[in-house]
Design brief:
alpha+beta, Phosphorylase Kinase, domain 1, Aminoglycoside 3'-phosphotransferase, Chain: A, domain 2, five-stranded antiparallel sheet, 11 strands, globular
């Protein structure tokens, strides 16, 4: 739902358990087992086997791994998606094994590298072939998304889906010290903006920060973790960067909004209602951030997200 959670709902599979699991599954030839950065919904280890570096991840949910496997159909030089070789059950949840991708996370890049790496990847997402897929919103491991329109997906931000991860967040937020009044007011602004959105449908990653994009100089080496992937307006990924821009001091000299608009002008892409679309998606991202951190009971993060989202909704930034 958001980047860099302060706490996590990922399963706690230890390095010793992972070593035993891999040895049992692959033989004793597994070596160099190393813990990787833990995500919000999974944890991961890198390991060597048969001369190749791999990554194994564990999660309470399988659907993110199925989406990673489905996303390989869009792989290209500008959008390289690592192969997923195995998915199955483990430790009361699920595991996935994929090829290890060397590279530096986009999050750790300075200004020159960032300027070089990002435009081609955003264009690759925007122009990805969606033949054989359907719907809007979060797609599944078969490329099917549940909403008939992008607008319907966006307006679903206020619903507490009984089948969704973190169900119960709305009541928890209403009963919390933060309260739900600011959430509901921001949602009202979202609803006012939704009718202005054009009918576009593109591939969206929706989490390109959080160490999910690896680069080597100007070359993109891997786009990882498609669990948040959507079908909808390509400007969503742009809004994601704008929303979290201030978290990255190394990028402070870049006017990202102007850089993106300049890139669109250079390639001759007409982008109507740019400001309204970006504000609408930033409100939606902020609402999702409140729901997620409410689920984690991280009240300082909920308070910060509530204040910021309402300010954006009111047009303050």
């Amino acid at each position: 739902m958001t980047t860099t959670p302060a706490t996590t709902s990922a399963p706690g599979v230890t390095v010793e358990q992972t070593a035993a699991f891999l040895t049992d599954r692959h033989d004793p030839g597994v070596s160099c087992l190393t813990a990787l950065r833990q995500g919000g919904w999974s944890n991961a280890y890198a390991f060597d086997h048969a001369g190749t570096r791999h990554v194994i991840r564990f999660s309470s949910w399988r659907d993110d791994f199925d989406k990673d496997r489905y996303a390989t159909r869009w792989t290209s030089p500008a959008l390289p998606v690592p192969d997923v070789s195995d998915i199955g059950e483990a430790f009361g949840g699920y595991f996935a094994i994929s090829r290890h991708v060397p590279g530096i996370p986009l999050d750790d890049l300075g200004n020159p590298e960032f300027r070089t790496a990002l435009p081609a990847m955003l264009d690759a997402l925007r122009t990805a072939d969606l033949t054989g897929t359907s719907g809007f919103g979060g797609w599944d491991g078969q490329g099917q998304a549940p909403f008939a329109t992008w607008q319907e997906y966006l307006l679903n931000a206020g619903n507490d889906d009984p089948a969704g991860r973190g169900h119960g967040w709305r009541q928890q937020l209403a009963n919390s010290p933060v309260g739900i009044a600011r959430f509901d007011e921001a949602y009202g602004h979202l609803a006012d903006l939704v009718p202005l959105l054009p009918p576009v449908r593109n591939l969206i990653h929706s989490d390109l920060l959080n160490y999910n994009m690896l680069v080597d100089g100007p070359r993109i080496r891997g786009v990882l973790d498609w669990g948040c992937g959507l079908f909808g307006d390509f400007l969503w990924d742009v809004a994601w960067f704008i929303h979290y821009w201030s978290w990255y001091p190394a990028w402070s000299e870049i006017d990202f909004t102007e850089a993106v608009r300049r890139h669109f002008r250079e390639i001759g892409l007409d982008v109507p209602c740019f400001e309204e679309r970006i504000r609408c998606y930033r409100i939606n991202i902020g609402l999702g951030e409140q729901a997620y951190h409410t689920y984690l009971r991280n009240w300082p993060r909920v308070e910060a997200a509530a204040a910021r989202t309402l300010a954006i909704a009111r047009g303050a930034n």
